[in-house]
Specification:
Structural class: mainly alpha
Radius of gyration: 21 Å
Largest sheet: none
Shape: elongated
Number of domains: 1
Helix content: over 70%
Strand content: under 5%
CATH architecture: Alpha Horseshoe
CATH topology: Serine Threonine Protein Phosphatase 5, Tetratricopeptide repeat
Number of strands: 0
Order of helices and strands: HHHHHHHHHH
Length: 185
């Protein structure tokens, strides 16, 4: 009978909002960390990120993402790439997932892997079925344009950039969109 009670208590604990509260507190620590992070102190940034990651379970997607971001922030893209990949493979979701996709694509570009960056960005491009959130989609397209330029596809890069920019223009947006589409040369 006592063991039945313990199982019920464990089940109730597993279903409680405590893990969410713990993650929310950790997220506040992460935000505070990024407010004071300085590229001029890369060792302090990496030490701080490692300390934050150590507070989470091994393989925790948000922790892997924050650690990858720290490496990226201090210019160590080679170390950032596998951490971003691990975070995404571990099920990173929401805004962090969208940021990880963009940051991974940028890092891939910076380490000489533009084709991999393009494949990643194409997988989340508008209409791909697994799109970035509306607020970060233009950033994804901006990095896609940079990657296309790196791959020698400058005309396509300009089309992507102008197609993304056109809706934000209060005036001349229609003309820019038509030029980008090649329908009004």
């Amino acid at each position: 009978m006592a063991s039945m009670g313990r199982r019920s208590e464990r089940r109730a604990a597993a279903q409680s909002p405590a893990p969410l509260l713990i993650l929310a507190a950790w997220d506040r620590e992460v935000a505070a960390f990024w407010e004071v992070a300085s590229r001029e102190e890369p060792d302090a940034v990496l030490d701080g990120a490692r300390a934050l990651a150590a507070q989470r379970p091994a393989g925790d997607a948000p922790a892997l993402f924050e650690l990858a971001s720290a490496h990226d922030y201090v210019g160590d893209e080679l170390a950032a790439v596998p951490l971003y990949e691990q975070a995404l493979d571990a099920g990173l979701s929401g805004r962090r997932r969208d940021e990880a996709v963009i940051q991974l694509a940028s890092s891939l570009r910076n380490v000489g892997r533009p084709a991999d960056a393009l494949a990643l960005l194409d997988s989340v491009a508008p209409g791909a079925g697994d799109e970035l959130g509306e607020d970060l989609a233009p950033a994804g397209q901006a990095f896609r344009a940079l990657v296309l330029r790196d791959l020698g596809r400058g005309d396509e890069a300009v089309t992507v950039a102008l197609t993304t920019l056109a809706p934000t223009l209060a005036q001349y947006g229609g003309a820019v969109a038509r030029y980008a589409a090649g329908s009004d040369q």
